[in-house]
Amino acid sequence: TQLLEQSPQFLSIQEGENLTVYCNSSSVFSSLQWYRQEPGEGPVLLVTVVTGGEVKKLKRLTFQFGDARKDSSLHITAAQPGDTGLYLCAGINAGGTSYGKLTFGQGTILTVHP
Amino acid sequence: GAGVSQTPSNKVTEKGKYVELRCDPISGHTALYWYRQSLGQGPEFLIYFQGTGAADDSGLPNDRFFAVRPEGSVSTLKIQRTERGDSAVYLCASSIRSYNEQFFGPGTRLTVL
Q1: Dihedral (C-alpha) A106, B108, A82, A35: value to the nearest 10 degrees?
Q2: Closest to A47 in 3D by CA, of B46, B18, B79, B101
Q3: Do residue A40 and residue B106 have CB atoms under 8 angstroms apart?
Q4: By percentage, how much of chain A surpasses pLDDT 90?
């Protein structure tokens, strides 16, 4: 069974601070996704990283896929209260009987205080 | 256009009862996934439909859980003899085909008393 370990589980910071969330696995994934989930809603896709070493930027968010495609990180610069939410990483395996099903980490609850 | 919808949004039932949870995917999406999210955890895969057939039901925890998608659109997740441990948010996601971006519904929060 493939597992994704996310850390930290909880993060409480002040507006303007930077933060990094980590997602680690002992297994290789074909691609990795990051989602954000608000209370009472389903996860919303932020980014997909496919190539080992890949870096993608989405405004103040920077996503990186490890060279070995086993780990990923999400870095937020100058966090704002609107960034508050649950951040989830999810791995995908291509081919075979995977069918694109997602293996999620346990999530990081981020709270940004004004 | 309309996103994925799930009904009911909340369901409270008693231990031992039968429940049905409904998912309306985005029109034209052939792939449909069910996930379960327990409190403080990430979603866990339950079952995947390609069209009308369940191509992968390896995530269903036991034979009390069953899901159907008879016309390749709406899907129903059925849970028999509910147990307190079944309490969770049940999420449905659809994609135009497998391996494409999945769009999630808001979930059904199931509480078994």
Answers
A1: 40
A2: B101
A3: yes
A4: 85
The values of phi and psi at residue B11, to 5°, are -140, 120
Q: How far is B22 from chain A (nearest CA, A)?
A: 15
Residue B96, both tokens = 């135009």
Q: Compute the count of residue pairs across chains A and B with CB atoms less than 8 Å apart.
A: 64
C-alpha–C-alpha distance, residues A37 and A60, integer Å: 18
Inspect the interface and report whether the beta carbons of B42 and A106 lie closer than 8 Å: yes
Cα gap A9→A1, rounded to integer Å: 21
CA dihedral A74, A46, A90, B98 (to 10 degrees): -150
Burial of residue A51 (CB within 10 Å: 0-12, 13-18, 19+) is: exposed
Provide, rounded to the nearest whole percent, the portion of chain A with pLDDT above 70: 97
pLDDT digits (tens, 9 = 90+) for A22-63: 999 988 888 999 999 999 999 999 999 999 999 999 999 999
